[in-house]
Records
---
Amino acid sequence: MKTSRRLPLLATVSCLVVACTDNSTTPTESPAARRVSGAGPYKHVFHGRGWRGPTGAYAPPGPMTDHGGAVMTAPKTYAIFWGTSLGTDPTFTADKMTGLATFFQGVGGSPYERILTEYSGSVWVNDTVLYTYLTLDSLSHYGFGGSFVDNRSAPSSDPSSSTVTAEVCSVLSINGVTPSQNGFYSVYATTPFDPISRICAWHSYGDCGNARIKIAFYFDLDNACSPNDASGLHSSGLAALANVSAHELSETITDPTLVTWYATDGSGEVGDKCAWTFSDPLVTLANGAQFKLQDEWSNKAYSGGFGYQNQIGEAGCLDGQVWPHVMVSITSGNSPSKVPTQQYCNWTASAIGGTPPYTLTWTVEGSNVTPLTATGPTLSAMEYTPGPFAVYATVTDAGGSTDNFLRDVRGSSGYWDISNCPQG
């Protein structure tokens, strides 16, 4: 006889977070517009202001779609500065190194990165491919591992992804850092910006030991790719690198190996769709730092018509400073994330934007679960037998606007993985 299970609900308020790792496999990439081939995997490039693609626009029209790859949860970033002149520049450390460290330390868990929480992708759990959603709790565990300077000669022109992967592996080895497949390694070089190709930066991936690392390469942008920051807070070079870094980081999180979230021809990643679109003169990060950062694309904003317009008039761009429409996300209230089946597990839903106050409703569904509903900010549940089920949170604001968020749960071998991935 099949044993049924019930999920008792408690109405308590908690706000704990849990970090995850990206343990997915990588499908084979395919060439597409704005993906540059060479030695190693393709590079997804970010062009300067005014560039136009095959459609006559910076990126193709319409929403991004999921092509079945992975997303990165809780990435850890390292900054590598590459070039012989860096060690002799007395202002370099105080300007770019310190400024970019401040940017990376503040972007994780910020309202700016919250834009990405609507995107999902595959991840490995207990030898099973599951679907995971980027959440504010996972992105708040985004970390900055530190900066390294390599005074060896940087390439004189645009390097291949294999060359940059080799540079990252070398620097990590010299500094005793183990490469991680959940690492994002940003390489800032003295390589001159090419006014003909107009490439500001690019992102890709490569293998370093047993880890498939994610990389980005940035040219010398002291006199190129400026966001036109008029605040006076940063040098022109730092302002350009911070904005381009926000673009590459967001695209790496949502399309780490170039097979996950992008538009139909492969060129419309989350940063491309809103490239050179700025809703506000400054974006405030989680640590209070302010930079002029481009908007990122939101499918929800586009479908609801409540975002800012990109260069071709599509209202799907957000920078996290203002949320015209209510949005909800779910955080896990358990640590570690693998919990025995007969212990309570907790989720907390949080809403932002729209018109407060909010009403939050929970729904639990699954083949071995009696459908349950509850209201309030927190859901607490116990599983009696292993098996998958789904947890939905729906928010309604005072004006009647709604949004919903799904969290899949997979139970096996006496445990259930409430955050879809093992503790990192």
---
Amino acid sequence: MREPCEGEALDVGEGGAGGHLEHDLLEGRGIDRGDPQHTSDLHALEDDLAAGHHPVFRLPRAILDDAGEEKVYVASGYGRGGRMLPDRVEGVWIVAATPFRDDGALDPASAERLVEFYLERGVAGIVLLGMMGEAPKLTRDEATAFVSRVARRVDGRVPLVAGVPNTGFAPMAESARTMRDLGVAAVMIAPPAGLRGDDGVVSWFVQAAEAVGGAIPFVLQDFPLANGIHMSAALIRRIADACPNLAILKHEDWPGLDKISAIRAQEAAGARRLPILVGNGGMFLPFELARGADGAMTGYAFPEVLVAVCRWMAAGERERALDLFDAHLPLLRYEQQPGLGLAVRKYVLAKRGAIASPTVRPPAPRLTPETVAEIGLLLERLERRLAGLDLPGG
């Protein structure tokens, strides 16, 4: 009997074959070939896979030495009925807005419309409950309902990532399990403000990784402008070495181009390679890609532009990518205003028909008539410039 390969999808749905093994894996234990139930479950999983059953759970990698002792155990992506993390993480993983009605209630219909808007524009993944997704303004039940609605609409077409709270490891673990059960491929974790020194940061991430455990891989959000936690390339390597279920680095340091280069240099010298997806609204995207980033994990009212820039940079068409990027840069920059940017993005998404209402749940700034007029001017100028370039993105 062969061992499951890394990332191989096998049907171990609730009540089906593999339930005992699944439970132990989710508790952070590896495959025990001396356990008759594990052996039986593995045989049953082989039979299910051969029969073509639809996979709803993904086993972690289990590498065994000649004596049958497990020596590596790395979570490689879970989910029930959802899409798992791909072997190669790249492209645009859009940070989704959370649509509300005019009265501030969640808008499920707009959530489904927004999913199709993103997918039609070629995103590789969708990120929910991020900072620009107004996660702190949602109740736990609202967050669960929103992710569930999106997951059902996506229906495995792209992987989902969801933010989880960093206020404590118990709520983090509970949220990670809930997200996994809804079909999310990975959770996003950012360290809280106030951690002291590199050792304190590493210790916190080790505990966070243990909290989510075998439940799901995680994305490390490196955003010092938001939490004051500055992580060097060397510190990120320490975290990656200590947390095998760290799957993706979301890089949002600013300035941060040299940091990307330093991370890639470490990897060339033998460090574990982490996929790097960049944030900050795509403000530096072409240059971050040139330094070695794999794609973007951010939001913008024109996601197809981020998709095209990633595609053309990968194809070596730098000038074409920069022409499109330059045309959108004024609006990208306007969207990056602290405190106001999300309201600007939602206003443009509503104008494009992606959501019904531009409502940002309070506390939030309101767009003044002057601001609305400026956005209109930027959109008019963008349309004219794109017409002159004959490029997509309008």
